[in-house]
Amino acid sequence: MVGGGGLEEGEDSDFLPDLQPQIVGAWKELCLPEQWKESKVPQFVILGSGRFCIARFFFFPTTNLDDLSH
Fold it and tell me: Pfam families from the entry (predicted)?
């Protein structure tokens, strides 16, 4: 579910027509460092048991592989 400025977590209750999903948690959009850029379109990944995640892919420039360990 998408809410005011962020994503929300809910329970699907097996999609019973008489029941509305209940929001059980919410989180705000990720604030990226300025040098990070999205490299692919975000992917919706179904984890099973009514759970999912959004996978996002980023590119950030580096001049040295040693920079990744800090």
Answer: DUF1668
